[in-house]
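Title: Comparing notes on inverse folding

I've been comparing how different people in this forum approach sequence design from structure. To keep things fair, I'm posting one structure and asking everyone to reply with a full sequence. Here's the target:
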């Protein structure tokens, strides 16, 4: 049987005008800034007017560690949102925007799949409403102003060896990880070693996604530490006087984007920090706005629950003062088999024993999510090759862990395939079982916070860090940053720092290679193992297959 591609399905969507989608959340037309006919930004003024309204229920969708077999977290997020609306609930979806880097690299699009998609799919995966370009521009404006300040006399006495603000680009480009700038003589400034990160790893991205409004945004931007003097005292973005201009560049980007699912249900798509090198959640502004406008808000956190969900709980919820009422953990039979040792080419053959063996990864995530005091239900994202016996094996395992697994067919059937899950999730959220609590308190020492995550979530035996890293953490504590949460930059493929170790390993060591202070965003980044903040393209990048066809339509995007 030939299945339509995601992009073919998306092109056949019966989209409504964005004003009609806004009306479903009682957003007046005058508070929508339209980008074409099918997407719009929601005004800051309207969002401010919602203050004081009762919040709806927040539902987090997370997943097992990703495998090449695919898990479908965004697809399930969209499918559940559609399912909740299909059973008569007023629900909205909150997901992240797509980065150009993985779109042209190896991951493909980020708008769901099959009959559980957000549209317009092509535009969401490309330039969309220009938010990422604005973030890139604001970030690099600060870079330019730092070098310009040094060139014109360096009044702030910046130690050029200690400029910590790197440049960014929304593309996978390994050649830019380490560069030398200002070559070519006196007119071009003072040569120094520098580098680029991908835009989704930018502290400006994290700040935009954690700020409550424009005033908070400018304060956070001003708090960015860009360099140090010879006496090790910090130089801030506000000292460079860049925070005002950066806020101007980000004014429109701060407004959440409203689009729709294939079933014409409202979806906020805003912000996009990666979860393996940043905090992996959509914007606080979008989530909080959705909670005021809908009775149920379905949001996702990037990659597996060890990364996205941990950061959602310990960083986003802590900073935003929100809490999830239920968690949906996405798993697939194919991924269970892969965790059980089956090669990718053999995943289509029934192997119940491999499914049972691979369920340890799922069990670890269930246990971890429950440690935050939130009830969890498993969504089995159905693939056509799954057999009844394999599905039953997953359901029996999940039941043995004190949770329930529901088979979902939203990829093929849209909301019809998630109605059972929607009923159970709504009942779970309404029961007020959740007693949410972050994993560690604010006043715990920074190294202990890192160890708490490493031992409690990853099941590492120890954390290794050089004396220089430990001294750096102590200096930050003495400077008043000890109450910040930690953001772990680690491979998404394993609980360890070795991407090839699947399942639920124990007894491993977590090496900390570097720590970075994101004083504006409000967290400490701990870079673990070999993780890169500027990815490279694969041997055969997706970009090779992306083109315009004879009708001017995009081919190969997803």
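Reply #1:
Here's my take.
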């Amino acid at each position: 049987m030939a299945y339509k591609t995601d992009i073919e399905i998306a092109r056949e969507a019966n989209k409504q005008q964005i004003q009609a989608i806004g009306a479903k959340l009682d957003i007046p037309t005058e508070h929508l800034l339209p980008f074409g006919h099918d997407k719009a930004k929601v005004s800051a003024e309207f969002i401010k007017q919602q203050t004081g309204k009762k919040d709806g229920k927040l539902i987090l969708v997370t997943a097992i560690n990703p495998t090449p077999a695919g898990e479908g977290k965004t697809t399930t997020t969209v499918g559940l949102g559609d399912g909740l609306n299909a059973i008569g609930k007023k629900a909205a979806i909150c997901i992240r925007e797509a980065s150009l880097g993985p779109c042209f690299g190896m991951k493909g699009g980020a708008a769901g799949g099959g009959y559980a998609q957000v549209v317009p799919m092509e535009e969401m995966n490309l330039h969309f409403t220009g938010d990422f370009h604005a973030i890139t521009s604001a970030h690099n404006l600060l870079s330019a102003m730092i070098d310009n300040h040094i060139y014109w006399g360096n009044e702030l006495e910046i130690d050029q060896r200690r400029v910590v603000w790197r440049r960014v680009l929304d593309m996978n480009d390994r050649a830019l990880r380490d560069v030398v700038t200002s070559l070519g003589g006196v007119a071009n400034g003072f040569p120094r070693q520098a580098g680029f990160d991908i835009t989704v790893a930018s502290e400006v991205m994290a700040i935009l996604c954690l700020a409550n409004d424009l005033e908070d945004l400018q304060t956070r931007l001003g708090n960015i530490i860009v360099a140090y003097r010879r006496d090790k005292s910090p130089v801030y973005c506000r000292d460079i006087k860049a925070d005002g201009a950066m806020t101007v560049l980000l004014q429109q980007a701060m407004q959440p984007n409203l689009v729709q699912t294939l079933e014409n249900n409202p979806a906020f798509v805003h912000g996009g920090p990666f979860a393996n090198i940043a905090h992996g959640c959509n914007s606080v502004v979008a989530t909080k706005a959705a909670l005021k406008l809908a009775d149920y808000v379905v949001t996702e956190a990037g990659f597996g629950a060890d990364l996205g969900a941990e950061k959602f709980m310990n960083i986003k919820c802590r900073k935003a003062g929100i809490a999830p009422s239920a968690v949906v953990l996405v798993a697939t039979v194919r991924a269970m088999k892969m965790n059980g040792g089956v090669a990718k080419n053999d995943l289509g053959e029934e192997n119940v024993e491999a499914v049972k063996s691979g369920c340890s990864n799922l069990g670890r995530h269930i246990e971890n999510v429950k440690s935050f005091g939130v009830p969890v239900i498993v969504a089995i994202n159905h693939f056509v090759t799954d057999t009844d016996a394999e599905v039953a094996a997953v359901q029996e395992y999940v039941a043995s862990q004190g949770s329930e697994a529901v088979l979902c067919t939203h990829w093929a059937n849209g909301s019809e395939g998630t109605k059972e899950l929607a009923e159970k999730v709504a009942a779970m959220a309404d029961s007020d079982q959740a007693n949410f609590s972050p994993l560690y308190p604010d006043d715990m020492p920074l190294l202990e916070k890192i160890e708490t995550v490493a031992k409690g979530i990853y099941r590492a035996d120890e954390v290794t860090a050089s004396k220089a890293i430990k001294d750096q953490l102590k200096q930050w504590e003495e400077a008043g940053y000890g109450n910040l949460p930690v953001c772990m930059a680690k491979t998404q493929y394993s609980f360890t720092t070795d991407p090839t170790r699947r399942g639920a390993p124990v007894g491993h060591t977590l090496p900390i290679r570097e720590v970075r202070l994101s004083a504006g965003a409000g967290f400490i980044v701990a870079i673990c193992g070999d993780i890169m903040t500027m990815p490279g393209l694969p041997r055969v990048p997706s970009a090779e297959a992306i083109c315009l066809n004879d009708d001017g339509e995009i081919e190969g995007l997803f």
